[in-house]
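Subgroup meeting minutes
Present: P.N., E.W., G.H.
Scribe: E.W.

1. P.N. recapped why we're keeping a running log of single-chain structure predictions: easier to compare across weeks, and new members can see raw inputs and outputs side by side.
2. G.H. added today's entry (203 aa).
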Amino acid sequence: MELLNWILAHLGVTPVTLADVSEFLRRYGYGILFLGTLFEGEAVVIIAGALAHTGILSWPGVILAAWAGSTLNDQILYLLGYRYGTRLVGWLPRFLRRHVERAEALIRRFGDWITVLFRFIYGTRTITPILLGVHRYHPRRYFWVNLVAALLWSVLISAAGYLLAASLPVILRELRYVQILFLVLLLMGAAYFLWRQWRRRRQ
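Output recorded in log:
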């Protein structure tokens, strides 16, 4: 934080305090989390879960925002697959098309259970709801199962972040160290995102 404030001071910008960061996250954290679950998912929910442990966010609020974003994202992908069928698969980026065969195999193997499991399987989270739509999985059934599955995912992933923060009592004992935890988790999330992008290019 000191380095950041030193840079801001030289740019003529008011230094950022921990209170500023905390207030920003309290005000906009749930919205950021909602948008994050529309694109990336796990990393932002883990960070939000850790922030819930610090008291900056509430854990029920984190679950609700993650649940809403995840539900909406997967419902839209399913409806796109249902509407456009196999044509949509052909329009997908190459790094997603590479996962089609794997997702198809999982759908055949697990049936209804795949609507719950795909969120926890790397490489299938985006393509699976599209394929379920392509295969005309029953719309009403998908709607209700998607609600339950997204809630389960939100609880488990945010709990992982919450427990991660809880396992660091020495750091969290002093409020001034919360900024360190936040920056570390942010860097971890960025590193995870870059690693996934690197793996997609390699594939």
